[in-house]
Amino acid sequence: MGNTKNLSLALIGLILGTALVACDDGRGGAEAAAKQLASAVAGLDVRPVAFDGRDSTVANDHLNQVFKALQPVKPSVDTGELQLDGDTAQIPLNYSWKIESSEWKYTVNAQLRKSGDKWLTVWSPGMLVPDLAEGEILSKATQSPQRADILGAQDVQLVTYRPVINVGIDKPQLGTADAADSATKLAKLVGADPAAYVQQVEASGPEAFVPAITLRDTAGRAVTDAEIAAIPGGRAIKDSLPLAPTRNFARAVLGTVGEASAEQIEKSDGALTAGDVIGTGGLQQQYDAQLRGTDGIVIRVQRADLTAAEIRDAATDPRRTVFEIQATAGTPLKTTLDPKLQQIAEDTLAGVKPASAIVALRPSTGAVLAAASGEGSNGYNTAMLGQYAPGSTFKVVDSLAMLRNGLTPESKVECTPTLTVDGRTFKNAEGYPKDSLGSVTLRDAFAHSCNTAFMAARDKVTQAQLESAATSLGVAVEAPKLGADAFLGSVPAEAEGTDHAAAMIGQGKVLMSPLAAAIMAGSVAKGAPVSPVLVLNPDAAAGASPSPSETASAPPADGAAPSSTVTAEAPAPAAEKPLTKAEAASLADMMRAVVTSGHAGFLAEVPGAPVGAKTGTAEFGNDNPPKTHAWIIATHGDLAVAVFVEDGGLGATTSGPLLKKFLTAAG
To answer: Is pLDDT at 72 greater than 80 in this prediction?
Structure first.
């Protein structure tokens, strides 16, 4: 019985085994080979794959040459339904590439052939990219849209594409001329470093155009086409770039545009490549994403040995496009800058050697109309980021605190020649009029800027009251509508002894920027705190910069950093006790007195609305006698202005004439 059972089991096993062999048509092996192929291609390493007609290492080199332009991206590859035909099979390979925020998908077929008991992949370039032939590879090109403009008041174009010429040596046009000799001559012509440019030309390939400088293509430019053409290989290629009206126009505020540096490319984590144009500094950098838009990408099939000359000729360009992402144009950045007032401010500061600034704004709206930093600022945004002791311009804040303590412009205060606080003697500025000493009105003390009268009020005006008065005037607070980096002032809530006394004359730890000083004057003119506005559409495009911080950023390496070493206090979110119309009227009355009876009488000649002003001189550094910042702030109708010169002597004698020139030209 047991033998019969064993025989039966053996027969059953034989029958089943025969049936399995009969059903195994090779599909399982082919599918396993196909999945191995898909996995290997996805990893861009097909050396483990057995090929029919191609060595695995050679095939792997070929695959990586084809896909080199897309690195470091790798595809996702999966298999479709295998079609078996005896000892051959065909398998669809479904590719998916992540290209920026898009996906490139396609399907190609791979052929398999059975050799003995092993399935081999039949090598073909077409299994990598549709219709790819031997000797062809992929290329990837980025197509950047035109950068969007930066606009000023009434949407006037401030930064837009303007004609330029790229001047350099075109090596194919050298003929028999010596490259080094031509490079030297051209460098001297355009003011470049001859040795560095010669090295650059010699290191470039024989087909290269090696730029030496980019110049604005304007009538009467210093370097002419004839001078360039007279040098063998010399060439001027016309182009256009996003530029402001002049090289220095609001440069520190707007920033500049140029090709990304090697350092910027390295830090971008693949977002930038060589040749990309980006913003550097100012609004161009802060709103780079909004202004740049998004790049277009074109992936093409081309011969591996295709030359640049063949590509340049559009009529005979043999490349074919297999995938494309359209570029998206950037969104123009709208600002409040008035081109006329900005240029007047730039012209007014021309020739001022120390760091300097003029800021003008419209009190009724807070619109920043001009923010110019002089040549002595060396590219630093002194106008908006400078941190300086404001000197006697801060007496506007003192006066508000005193008004809130019950004084009026008619109240009597004591103006003494000197005042000693904790052993330190303070005095009035040189040349202070003797007939304004003694018991004088607060208006008179303000008009002639009596230091001792304001410092004598230190026991009645606390430091906290000073801070509160400052925020009421729109300074030392955040600027949520500005849309740009700025320093809006710092007034510590606590200070004692000489620090508190010094704060009463805008020194000690009190700091302001020229923008903050203009805001302070503007708040008096408006009768309420001014909240400054520079950028009108900061959130106009996806990817735009986040809300800027209202703290000063570090200056560039060649910039003129502010002279103060005082650490700025964090700004308050907003004023707890806004300025009232009545308080502003008293302050405006006192600022007008600076012109009608004080030491800014020269401003009475400015045509138009009556001018109100306050001068300021603030000591800094360790020199003896100390150097001084020169300040003046003013109101003129619906215009508030601050003028600052870092090492400028007295506010009335240095900044005052600059203010008069600006207001007169502004009309």
So the answer is: yes
- Enumerate residues 6+ apart whose C-beta is below 8 A from 264: 272, 278
pLDDT of residue 431: 72
What's the DSSP call for residue 295? Answer: -
DSSP character at residue 253: H
Instruction: Please report the DSSP string for 134-153 in residue order.
Output: TTEEEEEEEEPPPPPPEE-G
**215 shares a domain with 293:** yes
Boundary of a domain, candidates 298, 333, 368: 333
Identify whether 12 is part of a domain: no
What's the total number of domains in the chain? 3
Query: Tell me, what's the pLDDT at 565?
Result: 52
Answer whether 607's CB lies under 8 Å from 349's CB. Answer: no
369 touches 341 (CB < 8 A) = yes
Q: Are residues 402 and 514 in the same domain?
A: yes
CATH of the domain at 249: 3.90.1310
d(CA 165, CA 188): 17
Q: Which of 153-157, 267-271, 287-291 has the lowest mean pLDDT?
A: 267-271
For 33, the token pair is 């080979």
Average pLDDT (429-451) is 87
pLDDT at 183 over 60: yes
Q: Are 128 and 67 in contact (CB under 8 A)?
A: yes
Rounded Cα–Cα distance for residues 191 and 213 (Å)? 9
Q: Is the dihedral of CA 296, 301, 305, 311 positive or negative?
A: negative
Q: Which residue's structure tokens are 């920033």?
A: 255
Say what the pTM is.
0.81
Residues 206 and 59 both lie in one domain? no
327 lies in the same domain as 352: no
> Both 514 and 634 in a single domain?
yes
The single-letter DSSP state of residue 328 is B
Q: Which of 545, 529, 527, 528 is nearest to 477 (CA)?
A: 529
Find, among 158, 533, 563, 220, the residue nearest to 346 by Cα: 158
The label of the residue with tokens 């980019």 reads: 214
Contact 333, 540 (CB under 8 A): yes
Q: Which domain holds residue 117?
A: 22-134
CA–CA separation, 560 and 566 (whole Å): 16
Between β-strands 51-52 and 118-122, what pairing exists: parallel, antiparallel or unpaired? parallel
CATH number of the structural domain spanning residue 121: 3.10.450.100
Which class for 55: exposed (0-12), middle (13-18), buried (19 or more C-beta within 10 A)? exposed
pLDDT tens column, 574-616: 778 999 999 999 999 999 999 999 989 999 999 999 999 999 9
Q: Which residue has the tokens 């609004």?
A: 283
- What's the N-to-C CA distance of the chain in angstroms? 125
